[in-house]
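USER: Study each token:
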Amino acid sequence: YDNLFTSDDWGRAMRNSFIVAPAATLVATVLGTMAAVGLARVQFFGKGALMSLLIAPMVVPIVVVGVSTYLFFARIGLTDTYLGLILVHAALGAPFVVTTVLATLQGFNQNLVKASLSLGAGPVRTFFKVTLPVIAPGVISGALFAFAASFDEVVVTLFLAGPEQATLPRQMFSGIRENLSPTIAAAATLLIGFSIVLLLTLEWLRGRSEKLRTSSSEG
């Protein structure tokens, strides 16, 4: 544990993880929520195909994602950069946001939106004052899933990140490959504890969402 918190390499890896994961989560949450709200409100030809495209990063083998993004980003100079890593991690996390927000919107009463619009509120004000508070548990759950997906991702990082952008999972992978160190076990215990906290938070949000649905249906 002392080496984990005092080593320059491990310190840089942890710092990079806490730079990339929150930034990717923010991008994935904003774009995923917008996509989910749009898909829930509008019916159009090709909606199923678009939905399949949005959740494709969840089913496409991660090695394929890593190789394809590396070949594309190499042409435009986004390899070995924080921006490239954040964009890919956001793309991997966005499907979690889309699916969780869509599930929350299944029980959303659209009459609330119509009432807000009829009272003079614009679409943006209606979203932030009416829609977002109701679907907030789904948005937060999706954001936590996106954060976990980014924080634990290693394969794409191996393809895209340089030494200065190495994240904690990549540092652990390099340590296992080169020299098995007790520091890896220390880092693993911290990641397990962090994952437990995320799961407990998700369970709390699920319970809160159920209570909101119950009170909404009773009302």
